[in-house]
Amino acid sequence: MFDQITLPSGLRIVGERLTHVHSCTVGVWVKVGSINETQDENGLSHFIEHMVFKGTQSRSARQISEEMDMVGGQLNAFTSKECTCFYAKVMDENLDLAVDILSDLTLRPVFDNTELNKERGVVLEEIAMVEDTPDDLVHELLAEAQFDGSLSRPILGPRERIAAYTREDIVSFWKKYYAPENMVVSIAGNYDWDTFLALIHRFFRDYPNQSNASAADQPQQSLSRHLSRSKDTEQLHICMGFPGVPAGSDEIYPISILNNILGGGMSSRLFQRIREELGMAYSIYTYTSGYTGIGTFNLYVGTTPENGETVVKEILQLLRSWKDDPMTEKEFLSAKAQLRSGYVMGLESSSGRMQSIGRSLLLRNEIKSPEEILEKIDAVTPEMVLELADKILSAKPCAAVVGKNATKILSLLEDEVNG
């Protein structure tokens, strides 16, 4: 099912062949994100993700984009709390170009000082955009409320740090983490394994760095912090955070079913009550986040400042009523079907498969086959969901509120939670 090898350098390669497509998605994964940063390094992982596109030893920024556009490919990257990924999607006949460019970006960036100062402005604009987008800002504030240490910090970093970083700061951080033993290359699509390995040996043979990466501190979760930010917005944005399950845990399947029942779709309890019956929100949902050793179960709602008090009380009442009104068999079967079908449909995307196998190998050093995952979903019982729900929903949530009357609504929420 999977092709997999670890090279003498320590670089891990994994692939999944999808013979029904005529394209490939290749990703280079680096085990570095905001969780690896100290307070004085916050934002460097994301800054580096931007900077490698500004020029390498053999390509200018313009050449990078033009070469990929010439073959109709897609090139992009993202930084998360735990990793950074650079990826390209191309027709299978252009696989060599994708591997060439990705190796150039990750192993041979130049970090030109002129480009650095220009891109610094871009990142500062990105930070400003989050500040001006309250439904993004409230999730960052929730992370600050939920965690102590590195997970509480924003991926983008604070403005003052981004404004102060020098080329030496960036190069030093890059050398620390961009080394073969800290990286995974994943591919999904229509490819020949031997041909792909030959490309890896050709383009990933010279490594400028030897890893001296330090292990990330284990984040600690807080269950009592509540934060607010007053902003002159039309909507009030409210988040609540409960303890969840860590990435890689088999409990991810029952918590995903719980998520679907409470706020994961249009038939969920929160959506039906707050939006359909009361008409007090356009957007309301729950979601899970899993990290190494720790996880969360979170809730978001956007409503008017005038309806904030009613919405908070209604949400908390609905969550408390779970003990007296637990899920029905119909809800359980529907939520399980949603989870199963969502996973199966995700298998049809080469990008989704590349991300799944690459992230799993990088962060957990294991890959589960689709058959294994479907078996685990099928094995979830109502008792497993009920037991986990009791543990999660009995905890006092962290909270974050952004908008008009934010302080007042947060105070009400604290009173309701502690009352």
The SSE string, one letter per element, is EEEHHEEHHHEHHEHEEEHHEEHHHHHEH
Question: Radius of gyration from the CA trace?
Answer: 23 Å
Q: What kind of sheet is the major sheet?
A: 6 strands, mixed
Q: Give the helix/strand class.
A: alpha+beta
Note the beta-strand portion: 15-25%
Low-confidence stretches: none
**Level of helix content?**
40-55%
Counted beta strands? 13
What is the subunit arrangement here? single chain
N- to C-terminal separation?
A: 54 Å
Mean pLDDT: 94
The strands making up the biggest β-sheet line up spatially as: 1-2-7-3-5-4
Tally of separate helices: 16
Shape: globular
Q: Any key phrases for this structure?
A:
about 425 residues, alpha+beta, five-stranded mixed β-sheet, globular
What are the SSEs and their pairings?
Elements: E1 2-6, E2 12-17, E3 23-30, H1 44-51, H2 61-70, E4 74-79, E5 84-91, H3 95-107, H4 113-131, H5 134-146, E6 147-148, H6 159-164, H7 167-177, E7 183-189, H8 193-203, E8 220-221, E9 226-230, E10 236-243, H9 252-262, H10 269-277, E11 284-291, E12 294-303, H11 308-320, H12 329-346, H13 350-364, H14 370-379, H15 382-393, E13 398-403, H16 406-418
Parallel strand pairs: 2-7, 9-13
Antiparallel strand pairs: 1-2, 3-5, 3-7, 4-5, 6-8, 10-12, 10-13, 11-12
Helix pairs in contact: 1-7, 3-8, 9-12, 9-15, 10-11, 11-16, 12-14
